[in-house]
Amino acid sequence: MALKIAIIVLYSLLTVTLMILKWFKVGSRGRGAVKMITAALFVAVGIYGCVISGNVYGYVLAIGLFFASLGDLFLVFMNKRVWFVAGVLSFSCASLVLSCYSVLSYGFRWWATIIFAIFCVINVLCQLFKVYDYGSNIVYLNIYTVLVGVCGSLGLSVAVTAASASALMFGLGCFMYFASDICLGLYLFKFKFRAVDMVNSLLYFPAMLLIAMSLII
Q1: 165-188 tens-digit pLDDT
Q2: pLDDT of residue 3
């Protein structure tokens, strides 16, 4: 219990530090060190949980978290397109792997497809009516949007029907991760408001910790 509390406190302090840096408009590279320490921590928690939980699919979750941390690393340099695309592809892999873990560990609920379909329709309509525009990254970002939509839809279905604390944490974490990317997309392609960017991080980093700690709860 003491270890879990220490992890939560340290992670919270790192997340708050990131919020302060964003508030003072410190650039992505300036926040890079704190961001990567935070990402390394959620990966470490995932690996630790994989080792001690005895969950036969725990390694799948740990791999998903690792891909997410790679995405965080690449997006530190997102002002260059090649690194931005690398980040999008890494998060695409993270979303796919976490979706696989969701189905393997908690099963599939058919009505998750309804949530996913509604999200996809909204995304397509928003692009058709120029609410936002992915520009030259339209292919990569739509692939990612589909994959993170699957992850979020499955996560919500797991959280709603959770029969254990670990299922609730994992499902809620996946849905928060999905919601954080909606905020990030709105920030990058529609509203350049600092508050939207901060909400993205306030959803994303706690989401990753919830997912990781679902193995050790």
Answers
A1: 999 999 999 999 999 999 998 888
A2: 82
How far is Cα 146 from Cα 46, in angstroms, rounded to an integer? 25
Give the pLDDT score at 120.
Answer: 96
Helices (H), 107-160: 112-128, 138-160
Reference 113, options 65, 146, 162; nearest CA is 146
* Beta-strand runs (E) in the chain: none
- Give the dihedral sign, CA 149/107/104/4: positive
Give mean pLDDT, residues 124-149: 92
Under a CB-based contact definition with an 8 Å cutoff, are residues 43 and 97 in contact?
Answer: no
Distance CA 14, CA 38 (A): 6
- Give the pair of three-digit tokens for residue 85: 């695309």
The token duo for 111 is 């009505």
CA distance 125 to 106: 32
CB–CB of 55/29 below 8 Å? Answer: no
pTM above 0.90, yes or no: yes
Nearest CA to 155 out of 139, 136, 169, 134 is that of: 169
Which tokens is 166 given? 């670990």
Say which residues have a Cβ less than 8 Å from residue 62's Cβ, sequence separation at least 6: 43, 46, 47, 49, 50
